[in-house]
Amino acid sequence: MAHSTPASARLIAGNWKMNGGAGQLREAAKVAAALAGKIGGPRVAICPPATLLHRLSEQLRGSGVLTGGQDCHVEAAGAFTGDISADLLVEAGARLAILGHSERRQGHGESDALVARKAQAASDVGLEPIVCVGETLIEREGGRALEVVRRQLRGSLPPGLAGRAFAIAYEPVWAIGTGARASEDDIVEMHRAIRAELMNLTSHGGRVSILYGGSVTADGAAAILAAPEVGGVLVGGASLRAESFLAIIEAAER
């Protein structure tokens, strides 16, 4: 029987990408204030640029709103100019880390194998990896969407995640930042396929949250979150403003 994920088991994560200066912290404060005292709602996280991570973590301390990084290096330390390790994310207050986002896979040439090493590094220091997968428009139009995402899952999840907390974010590449999003039927089909693959890959595959991402808006969030096997959303531009991000969180509370 089709069913939606209970609100308390959902994860609503905001990915600020390379946006937001100090003024952006005020939007996060509004989110935290609006959620203060609420019980039984979804987990909420904000993943800001690395320059804001420590300040945001301190600002949100005790509020229940988590923070996360947008990437991490596979090594704990070393001569890796411009990179940031999972250990440094933890020190800055992060609890999660987005890994393998298509903007990293495409813009930085990250392979499934590299994403798997990053996921292992993040998990080893107590971060909850959010591992992103998704097909391009050419792959979907060619009827290869399910094949591509299954392959990414198999290649991007290290064996060391077995029994540990992590999430999957399905983000069709053609929907990210375009204003387009997958239909509810496409989301259901893909999330069910991801669930089946997770069940084969790990003993706790039935409990792993599967998020949808790709032009998630306040208007469309409720329909997405009502779909079977949707355990939350990974939100881009709509997470930059408290009003729109809170509307998405509210949709997840229903």
CATH topology of the domain at 95-237: TIM Barrel
What is the annotated CATH architecture of the domain at 95-237? Alpha-Beta Barrel
Q: Give the CA-based shape.
A: globular
Which regions have little confidence, pLDDT < 50, spanning 5+ residues? none
What is the succession of H and E elements? EHEHEHEHHEHHEHEHEH
Structural class: alpha/beta
Largest sheet: 8 strands, parallel, barrel
- Terminal CA distance: 19 Å
For the biggest β-sheet, the strand order reads: 1-2-3-4-5-6-7-8
- Per DSSP, what share of the residues sits in E-state strands of 2 or more residues? 5-15%
How large is the radius of gyration? Answer: 17 Å
The CATH superfamily title of the domain at 95-237: Aldolase class I
Let me know the average pLDDT. Answer: 95
Q: Estimate the helix proportion, in percent.
A: 40-55%
If you had to describe this structure to a student in words, what would you say it looks like?
The protein is of the alpha/beta class and 254 residues long. The protein has a domain at 95-237: TIM Barrel. Helices cover 40% and strands 15% of the residues. It has helices at 24-35, 50-60, 86-91, 102-107, 112-124, 137-141, 145-156, 184-201, 218-225, 242-252; strands spanning 11-15, 43-47, 65-69, 96-99, 128-133, 167-170, 209-213, 232-235. Strand 2 (43-47), helix 2 and strand 3 (65-69) form a beta-alpha-beta unit. The two termini are 19 Å apart. The model has no long low-confidence stretch (mean pLDDT 95).
